[in-house]
Amino acid sequence: MPLAPRLLAALVLTLVLTSCSLFVPEESGSRGGKSPRATSTPTVSLTTSASASPSPAVVVDPSATPVPPEFFGVHDHDPLSWPNAPVGSLRAWDSGVTWRLIETSPGSFDFSLLDATVERAEANGSDVLLVLGQTPEFHAKDPAAESFYGAGASSPPRLAAWERYVREVAERYAGRPVVLQVWNEANVAGFWSGTPAQMARLTKAAYDVLETVSPRPTLVAPALVTRLIGQRAWIDDFWAQQVDGKPVSDFVDVVSLQLYPEADGTPESSMELLAAIRVVLERHGVTKPIWNTEVNYGLTGLPVSPTNTKQQAANVARTYLLNAANRVERVYWYGWDQQQIVDTLLTYADGITVTPAGRAFRTVQRWMAGATVQSCNTDTFGTYLCTLTYDGGVRRIYWNPTVEVSVELPSGATSLQRLGSNARNEPLSRQDLTVWQIPVMVDSST
Question: 360 and 421 share a domain?
Answer without folding.
Answer: no
